[in-house]
UniProtKB/TrEMBL annotation:
It comes from the Bacteria. It comes from Lacrimispora xylanisolvens. This is Uncharacterized protein.
């Protein structure tokens, strides 16, 4: 579980760096479209990662619930 939390922290830090770059680009009107595309890409990537994390957490929860039930049934 700690490994998953560390992965999430690293992803958040990477996204903060990309967002800072996007904000700097946004200050230049000529690069506004590039900025919008970059931000959209970041959001799509983040959504994909969050779905992966959700699936992993649901799997852990299901496994824990099954283990708890088995222990109670014993």
């Amino acid at each position: 579980m700690d490994n998953l939390a560390e992965k999430i922290r690293k992803e958040i830090e990477a996204k903060k760096d990309l967002i800072a770059q996007a904000e700097a680009m946004h200050a230049d009107p000529e690069k506004q479209k590039q900025t919008e595309e970059l931000v959209l890409g970041i959001l799509k990537e983040q959504l994909s990662k969050m779905k992966e994390y959700q699936q992993a957490l649901e799997s852990v929860l299901t496994s824990s619930e099954e283990q708890t039930k088995e222990e109670q049934d014993s």
